Amino acid sequence: MFEQSKKYFSYILNPLDLLRTKKVLQVNPTVESPRVEPEETHLFVYDYDAATANMKELKEVPDCFPYLDSPKITWLNVDGLRKVDVEKICTHYGVHYLITEDILSIGQRPKMDEIDGLVFCLLNMMYFNQKDSAVETEQISIVLGKNFVISFQEDASRDVFNPLRERLKVGGSKVRQQKADYLFYSLIDMIVDNYFVVMEKLGEKIEGLEEDIVRNANTRTLAKINMLRKEMIVLKRSIAPVRELVNGILRSDNELIEERTEKYFKDVYDHILQANELAENYRDMMMNLNDLYLSNVNLKMNEVMKVMTVVTCLLAPATVIGGIFGMNFETIPLLHNKWGFFISVGLMLFIPLAMLRVFRKRGWF
Hints:
Blueprint: H1 2-13, H2 16-25, E1 42-48, E2 53-58, E3 73-79, H3 83-92, H4 97-104, E4 111-115, E5 118-129, E6 134-145, E7 148-153, H5 162-168, H6 174-177, H7 180-215, H8 219-251, H9 262-325, H10 340-361
Parallel strand pairs: 3-7
Antiparallel strand pairs: 1-2, 1-3, 4-5, 5-6, 6-7
Helix pairs in contact: 2-8, 3-4, 7-8, 7-9, 8-9, 9-10
């Protein structure tokens, strides 16, 4: 009963936490989640080889169709997933309809598939919202084909690929010298590397929260702990399956992934292992912070109870003396003595002072 009351009290302090909890924990792959389609799809194509690189934004979906037969390496970045446009692109590039469904889905678990000779990866890009102290995720789908890579993003306003775009402009860059599988690796590597940026922000929040708990733990501190624990759920859910995703690529015998590129995916695998271990460490830290908060609350409660107990003990002699002289007996010592009142008051003061001296000597107060 106490735990339920504490939970609902935290929702009163932070009513958005209830919505956040449902958002974090709601997972049902059998129910199609409603997708709010954007007004338009933004298409960016990067067609390059070691000598030249053409980068431009396409106005219409059919404008990307000729790049299927391009002798160069093509990266088609689709921002904003409109069902009609995604289906047109996938149909022209030979992407299986099951992959198309995964691209248009919401809340999918990160995974890797090979269908009809194409390699498909679905994972989450993560961002840290500094204003709300929340981890935000964006689902991204990447399709590797012969001489082309297609990336599908939900949000057209942000991603983590700007360093890659800058490298594509440099003629001597490694990505310009390699084939499509290296571009495929570069996209996944940048997503994984950005996990560490998000975790660094979370780590700063955890350190600041630890200082708040040590200095002044209150109900707001408990709400912050619960909020960060929810963010750790989002973090763990996004990072943990990527290990299986990269491992699936390493085990793949698909001819699109050359043997010389495997060492780069092994490096990504090492990074995702480190990210997974760091996420586990942060989760343990959150559990320790929760224990630290409870310990501090109990310590403060013990201090309050100790003070109240000492005060009660110091007032006990006065209560006893007052009770004795307040009894309705005809004969009571010092009852009619002119110094009786002063003697009783003196005892009421002397005995507590003597008790206080004994308490301090023994270290009780």
